[in-house]
Amino acid sequence: MEYSFLKTYNLFLLAVFFLVLVDTLALAKHAGITRHYKFNIQMQNVTRLCQTKNIVTVNGQFPGPRIIAREGDRLVIKVVNNVQYNVTIHWHGVRQLRSGWADGPAYIAQCPIQTGQSYVYNFSITGQRGTLFWHAHISWLRVTLYGPIVILPKKGVAYPFPQPFKEVPILFGEWWKADVEKIISQALQTGGAPNISDAYTINGLPGILYNCSANDTFKLKVKPGKTYLLRLVNAALNDELFFSIANHSLTVVEVDAVYVKQFKANTILITPGQTTNVLLKAKHFHPNATFLIAARPYATGPASFDNSTTTGILEYHQPSTNTKKSNKFPLLKPKLPIFNDTAFATSFVKKIRSLANAKFPANVPKKVDKHFFFTVGLGLNPCPQNQTCQGPNNTKLAASVNNISFVQPNVALLQSHYFNQSKGVYTTDFPVNPPFKFNYTGNPPNNMFVTTGTKVVMLPYNTSVELVMQDTSIISAESHPLHLHGFNFFVVGQGFGNYNSSKDPANFNLVDPAERNTVGVPSGGWVAIRFLADNPGVWFMHCHLEVHTSWGLKMAWMVMDGKGSKQKLPPPPADLPNC
């Protein structure tokens, strides 16, 4: 009797052990690992457009190194500053759940890393997979300090689309022959618009349409019949871009590291700060041609812009029997929309929808706790006494949210908030609505001057927010790609003209809206977004056209701690830089 009881008990223990083992192995399969990277910020000579220039780089690479992780991994990235400039790095689009100290925007999340100093960015990738990117987040240094972040699904988890034969990051950038730090510093001093770029680039290369750039051209070699995943990143400073490949259709499968309902497109629109994954299916035969890959600007404002085109070349691997060299093949060119084709831009954006299925739900806040209405646009500052300024009628150009042009503090907002030292740093009276009403997209008011200040919006933990952002025609209507740190949001509605709070919400999409971290406020129109403030900390929101950010089109959301231990911002790391 005792023997049989022991035997049964041992079998029971064995079964429990086996179940625990299976469970542990399953967890281990999905448990993240810690990945370490070292970023040495250093100067490097680089030649483009017949000119050699000393630029700021990570590890001497331009564009910078690729960061690869899986969903659930922890990243520990040590940044060592060996250059004359203050530096910070932002991990654009990473949720940074309770890790706001690692978010990166200078004087918002941290004081900058000074020359000779270092800082370790330590954060986890939670519930995200896809393409994001990292870039400098101080002054205009991101012009050369940027690189891709590739987040793979957890081990053993497939993409919700066919497994590609190969994955290729394609980063769009902007290149100036002159020193970009001097350009923006001079523009801010004189109050005029900064000089435009000399070229756009694909993976750091301008392409054959620019002087001296025949050898500085990105080449994509493909095999017939294979499918390629192109991870597109717009890291340009000031320009939204149209992108196309001659005679090839692209299938959009993801934006801003969120899977979307697939749709085919010959041309992609991508604003600075946005990422888009597309599938490229190579033709089943060897075409006796090469195909131009091209990107050029979508521009809606009156200001001059770099109206040039960056190109790469798509080549097919030729069978050894074909003796004809591919450079002897005709080069076919794509047809891109004209620079101000807002109709195309609008129809493209409307096609982007969340998967909104059981595996990848769209958790759109259905109930709204707080409504905000923000005007975003340009404005003016008076010219200082005894100075001549280059803005309209001897003024300085500015930009604002609800007519407040944000003044960068001298210490980091997150530290001030965490240690309750707000006095003299920021105030919490950022307006919920514009300070005065006017016909936002009609004739501008007589007074175009902005007010200045360091104001934030305070939100209790877990507040559901609806924010309508309205473009204005002050100086000029213009498309503004707005980026929110620390959150993804749902784009529930958009339209042209002035937002109508009694009519427009009836048309909101609360079922499968696009989920993003950067959205274009349409030129002469509005966009409505919703998000849940479930991430304690101080989160920057700004236009991703760098010139507008420099002029003050930025603000911050201060999300308070919740009651639970997992709802509070942990203390800062010991090596957090001082101002």
UniProtKB/TrEMBL annotation:
Gene3D superfamilies: Cupredoxins - blue copper proteins. It comes from the Eukaryota. The keyword Repeat applies. It is an enzyme of class 1 (oxidoreductase). It is found in: Secreted, Extracellular space, Apoplast. Residues 41-155, 167-318, 430-561 form the Plastocyanin-like domain. Its EC number is 1.10.3.2. It catalyses: 4 hydroquinone + O2 = 4 benzosemiquinone + 2 H2O. GO terms for molecular function: copper ion binding; hydroquinone:oxygen oxidoreductase activity. InterPro entries: Cu-oxidase-like_N, Cu-oxidase_2nd, Cu-oxidase_C, Cu-oxidase_fam, Cu_oxidase_CS, Cu_oxidase_Cu_BS, Cupredoxin, CuRO_1_LCC. Its cofactor is Cu cation. Keywords: Apoplast, Copper, Glycoprotein, Lignin degradation, Metal-binding, Oxidoreductase, Repeat, Secreted. GO terms for cellular component: apoplast. GO terms for biological process: lignin catabolic process. It holds the Pfam family Cu-oxidase_2. Binds 4 Cu cations per monomer. Belongs to the multicopper oxidase family. NCBIfam families: laccase (TIGR03389). Lignin degradation and detoxification of lignin-derived products. This is Laccase. It comes from Anisodus acutangulus.
